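Researcher: I'm preparing a figure for a lab meeting and need a structural model of a single chain. I don't have an experimental structure, so a prediction will have to do for now. The sequence is pasted below. Please return the structure as tokens so I can convert it later.
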Amino acid sequence: MPRLTLWTLRAALLYLGIGFTLGGLMLFNKGVALDPSLWRLWPIHIELTLIGWTMQLALSVAFWILPRLRRMERYGNSALAWIAFVLLNGGVLLVAAGEWFDELSRLVLVGRGVELVAVIAFAVYIWPRIKTFGA
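Model: Understood. Here is the structure written out token by token.
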């Protein structure tokens, strides 16, 4: 398994664990009222599970499983994919921080922009590996 796939899978599982823990805490709070302010975790829970876990898992599997190149390097120059990995994680953390600290709501916008750049970088990287069946 390629090193990038290992890192993205580990990061995705970390986001899954944190996101589900926050979700479980909010669910427990619904049954046993601990603190009403725990509902502030809702947008962070969504960000970590939807973008941090799901998107990262999809990119990881796409990097690993899409058809490989016929050259010596089966995955090509993966620098753009690594940049996408770093940017995606940075964007998730920026959005989560912006949601936690209401006065830093600009971080949410910046984080979404960074996530968009990450997706574009990964799309540019993976584009040559997308081929018709049998090609």
